[in-house]
Amino acid sequence: MTVTSAPASLPDTTPPDPTPPVSATALPPIRRWELIGLVVLLIATAAAYLWNITVNAMGNGFYAAAAWSGSRDWKAVLFGSLDPENFITVDKPPVSQWVMGLSGQLFGFSSASMLIPQALMAVVTVALMYGALTRATASRGAGLLAGAVFAVTPVVALMFRFNNPDAVMVLLMTAGAYCTIRALRQASVRWLMLAGVALGFAFLAKMLEGLMVLPALGIAYLIVAPTALRTRLWHLLAAAGALIVSSGWFVLLTMLWPESSRPYLAGSTNNTFMDLVLGYNGFARFLGRNHKGGNRFELPPGYEMPHNAGPGQGFGGFGSGPDRLFTGEIGYEISWLLPAAILAFGLVLAARWRAPRTDLVRGAALTFGLWLIIDGVAFSTMKGGMHAYYTLAIGPAVAGMFALGVHEMWRRRDGAFGRIGSAALILTAGIWAFIVLQRNSDWQPWLRWTILVISVLAAVGLLIASLPAAGRRRARDRVTSVLVVAGVLAGLGGSTAYAVTTLPQSHTGGSPTVGPGRKQKPGPENEAQQQMRRFMSGDFAEPRLVSMLSDTATRWSAAVDRSSTAATLELASRTPIIAIGGFTSDDPVPTLHQFQELVRTHQVTYYLAQEVKLPDSWRVPNQGNAPAAEPDDELWRPVGHKDIGDWVAEHYQAVHIGNVAVYDLTVSPS
Question: Which pLDDT score, from 0 to 100, does residue 14 have?
Fold first, then answer.
């Protein structure tokens, strides 16, 4: 019998990976400097974000009115009502109003009780960023860098001291990413279901925008989780079930609660939550069809509203396209490290190319990198009105991906790839910071040049250190470390400076901005946009009018078109106001019959109509030889529900207070 020996295996000529995959073992004990660093980071974030937070007063009055309403009535908290008598909600789900309304019930409604929870959310989000990167890389330094980068992002410094729902949404999205990375270590269905719960409540904060991170988390788990494919699919189904339950209960509640005893769901066409999700705050917003109220405003003869002046057209005037995230106000708010984060995604994937499927570093890169790309593409192609602060949704992705790239290149700093990759990241961050600062060249010109010089010197030094004859290894490694630290700090300089200048400034209204003040370019288009914005804000809280509203005894003190106008008057008078037509006057409530019934049963005292002098730039020009239309000399009333306005004007006498026509509905109609 012949025995054949097994052929000898060929020698493995693949060079060893200097950065083996992170295993699922427990993290090493925290060292003293790491603990000190974490404590300093969290305390510094809390101190910076809480300091003088009431400088923002009521912030966005639209949501402040809902917070005031929630502080007075439990049903208003539950549904996110704009008024405590629950006529209509704000046009978003109520999670943010739950937080601010409950805070107002506990501590009394004020600027502080409304805004302090927002700042504390920033501290929690920083802690989650630290935890996610630390567990993904087994490096607490990477976690500290991720948390710090997030905290010094200008849009974060703006919105976590403001009362919009974006802060709680981003907190919950980050919690979902953290739970997913925890799930990746040992294929934990429990942690993955917790990620689903977090995203379910993110959906209840800002609907589909809160779920835009979902594909990234799902893909990362499907690829990386250390278990069989069938098990991974079952885990994802379980997480989807957790998401549906954690969000669906509120949807079911709105369906089962009698419509007659709950507020109208603003933004919907039929008073249903899913219409709001799929329409006004969903695909209609993405396609640019969600703000239609301006089409209902009937101008006097001889005038025409400019196409860019309607309520759905402003929002900062950001055109869609691949450069949207890098230009204008959006560039100041989020773009500082965006190019470097995109580069970091490619570098990490290249560095971990030969790592096993279950490599946690690659899993974290997929989590944050795909989050950045998916959300970034969505924002870039979105046709509807867009505020710059929407990009807060990619703040954690930018911070996490940049920190992951720096960490991976740092681990490989002994080799040419690590040093060249570090040089590329530093140079990208530094040059882009210089470009962004150059756009506001009158402000601190020394800063951009300092950032550029340090970044270039650090990058060149790293490239020289990568040459074969770069000197002794120990000295080269020491120089490499110094250059990387200096370069990263320089790259963070522009973002940090803008965040620091954002914190002490007062931010109010619907479109707050970051950084130092910047001169606005004059022009007729800007004038038209500003004029329409004044119409929509409804800022006409004359003292005499406020006093009249405060003295009323009916269920609602007044009715007025648009939620923003009603909110302004509510906060000034601390009385419930009926917001006719919701945010854009397009909501079909109340109907004329419903309004007449409210008047007949003495539930509302006044009807208010703003009166506006139209700008000359809105006059219709001559068309060839045709004579120009003669403009009406009377003041314009931007009323969406014209049938109600006409009925009131026909039956009641107006008293003029400032630029407001006030109709007393308690007197006998004529």
Answer: 38
